[in-house]
């Protein structure tokens, strides 16, 4: 936060950026999530009854190594994207999940960073991000509307809001991080 992190989330919560503007920007950017255009997924869940659950899962596809690198390099940027998406769709429950096995160091680092985030919440009333494991078959809690997004999808949300949908769309395809 001292270096400007969570600035866009704070602008959303303060009303400087409204839900419609965020959804429009994400939609015009061409950002895709697990089920299709990310903005359409967020809108669908936003129309469902509360409570709503937002899950970010790392490691469920062939790009899982990239998800882990994004989380290791800049976990708070991933957290900010998750919190903005949750804010836009009205989710009150948040989960950050890793595929089981072989990620003890990453899980420990993320747990420590989430403790820091809870201590210095970017805004009052921010829902906690719960760290857990994701299964290949998602569980559905009765009565809870749920959306699962990938880490890479959420990682780009702050850039889209900061740099603009046109910038992101001009990349012809999602910008890719170099994982050297």
Automatic annotation (TrEMBL):
Task: Note the superkingdom of the native organism.
Answer: Bacteria
| SUPFAM superfamilies from the UniProt entry | Nqo1 FMN-binding domain-like
Identify this protein by name.
Answer: Uncharacterized protein
């Amino acid at each position: 936060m001292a270096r400007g992190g969570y600035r866009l989330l704070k602008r959303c919560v303060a009303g400087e950026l409204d839900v419609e503007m965020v959804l429009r920007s994400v939609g015009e950017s061409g950002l895709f999530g697990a089920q299709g255009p990310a903005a359409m997924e967020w809108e669908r869940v936003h129309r469902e009854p509360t409570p709503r659950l937002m899950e970010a899962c790392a490691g469920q596809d062939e790009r899982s190594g990239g998800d882990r690198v994004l989380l290791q390099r800049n976990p708070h940027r991933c957290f900010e994207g998750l919190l903005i998406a949750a804010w836009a769709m009205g989710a009150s429950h948040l989960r950050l999940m890793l595929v089981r096995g072989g990620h003890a160091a990453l899980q420990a680092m993320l747990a420590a960073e989430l403790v820091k985030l809870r201590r210095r919440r970017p805004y009052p009333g921010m829902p906690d991000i719960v760290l857990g494991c994701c299964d290949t078959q998602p569980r559905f809690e009765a009565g809870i509307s749920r959306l699962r997004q990938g880490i890479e999808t959420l990682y780009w949300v702050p850039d889209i809001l900061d740099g603009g949908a046109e910038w992101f769309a001009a990349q012809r395809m999602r910008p890719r991080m170099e994982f050297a």
